[in-house]
C-alpha cells in the first residue's frame, strides 16, 4: 500500500483537475485505437502526483518525448493522478482513470477477478526479461488464473524515517538511530520533551492506520491473516503489544503530539516541515518528501525498522502494479505495456536504461538513488545500482542503517485477502487507542477480528 492521500486544491487547480478528468473520460476506454485519425495509438498514463514540483513534471514529459521518439506509432500523454483509497472506486466506475495507472499490490487480485484491469500476459511475455522476475514479486501482478495484469514496480520495505535535526536538538546521535522499539519510545519522549514536537507519529486514516498497524504487527512477530487469506488473526499478542506501545507513547509519555489524524500525504507534509521526529513508511517515500513536500535533505534519516524477537518477525513489503484499463483496446493495452516497460521497468533491469533515466532526472534535479528493493534478483539490482552510482544525489550516507540492514530482514507480504477492507477496520482501532486513554484494547481487537473474519468468509 502506498500513495494514499488527499490534498486541498485552489479554485484554479480544481478547474485544471476537472479538465483532466474530462480529458481522461474522453481518452480512456476507446474502442478505436486511432482516436485522432493520425494512424497512431493514443494513450493517457499516470504521470505525477497532485502538488508535485515543476521539475518532476518536466522529467516525466521529457521521458514521454523520448518514448515517442522510440515508438513513433504511439502518442503518450502523461497526466496528473494518484491512487487514493477513498476515490479510486468512483474514478474506476466513472471511467476517470488514465489508460495506465498504478495500484497497490494489494488491489491487483480483486481488480483482476472483477475484470476491471486488462489481462496483458501476452504483451508482458514478449518483454526480454519476462522470465527473470522475482516470482514472489511477479505474483503481485497476477490473478488467480495465473495470468499477468500489469508490471510490478516500486517495490519497497517499510523503514523508520527520522528527523536528524530533532535528534540533535534532543541530544541524540542522528548517526545512531534506534534499533529496538524500547529505544524508539525513549527517543520519541526525549524529542518531545526537548523540542515540543511529536517524537513519533502513527498514520491512522484512509486505510493507512491499518497498513501501519499491520507493519507493527509483523515487526513484533504477528500476522493479521492466515497466509492463504481465509482466517483472520487480528486478535493476536503482537498486535496487542503494538497497540499498547502506541497507547503508552500517546498517553503516558505524551510523545506523539495532539494531532492523531494522519495519513500518507499529511504525515509526509508534517515530517518535511520538521514537526515529526519519527514515523514508519515505505523506503521510497523520500522521493515524495522532496518533489511534493520540499524537505531539507540534510534533516532526513532512514533506519531499518526495529524488529522484536522470534522467528516470525519481519518487515512489511509492498509495491505497485502498473496496470491497464480493461476498457482499453488491444492496441492501447500493448502501447501501455510498452510505456510501462520503457518508463518504469527497464531502468530496474538494464544498466544503460538506469543511467539514461538518471541523466533525465539529474537535469531537473530530481531524486536519484532512493532505496528500493529488487524486482528481479539481488544481483541484477546491484548491477543497476552500481551503474547509476555516480548520479546518486540523495543522502545515502544518512540511510545506511536501512540499506545495510534491510536484506537481513524477512520481507513479509501484505495480507492476502480483502486487504484494504481489513486495513479500514484496523483504522478505527488505531484511532480509538490514540484518542481514548481508556480504550479497551482486548475488546477492540476481538471486535476487529470478528469483522475481518466476516469479510474473509
Notable traits:
single chain, 457 residues, alpha/beta, D-Maltodextrin-Binding Protein, domain 2, 6-stranded mixed sheet, 18 helices, disordered N terminus
Topology:
Blueprint (H helix, E strand, L loop, with lengths): L10 H17 L13 E8 L5 H17 L3 E7 L7 H6 L6 E5 H9 L7 H5 L9 H4 L12 E13 H6 L11 H15 L12 H12 L17 H16 L11 H9 L5 E5 L3 H6 L8 E5 L10 E10 L5 H16 L5 H13 L14 H10 L12 H6 L5 E3 L5 H17 L5 H16 L1
Parallel strand pairs: 1-2, 7-8
Antiparallel strand pairs: 3-7, 4-5, 4-6, 4-7
Helix pairs in contact: 2-14, 9-10, 9-17, 14-15, 17-18
Describe this structure in words.
This protein is α/β, with parallel strands linked by helices and 457 residues long. It folds into two domains: 11-154 and 318-391, D-Maltodextrin-Binding Protein, domain 2; 157-314 and 401-456, Periplasmic binding protein-like II (D-Maltodextrin-Binding Protein, domain 2), CATH 3.40.190. It contains 18 helices and eight strands. It has helices at 11-27, 54-70, 88-93, 105-113, 121-125, 135-138, 164-169, 181-195, 208-219, 237-252, 264-272, 286-291, 330-345, 351-363, 378-387, 400-405, 419-435, 441-456; strands at 41-48, 74-80, 100-104, 151-163, 278-282, 300-304, 315-324, 411-413. Strands 3, 4, 5, 6, 7 and 8 form a six-stranded mixed sheet that branches. The protein has a two-stranded parallel ribbon with strand order 1-2. Helix 2 (54-70) links the parallel strand 1 (41-48) and strand 2. Helix 2 packs across helix 14 (351-363), helix 9 (208-219) packs across helix 17 and helix 17 (419-435) packs antiparallel against helix 18 (441-456). The longest helix has 17 residues, at 11-27. The radius of gyration is 22 Å and the shape is globular. Residues 1-27 and 29-33 have low confidence and may be disordered.
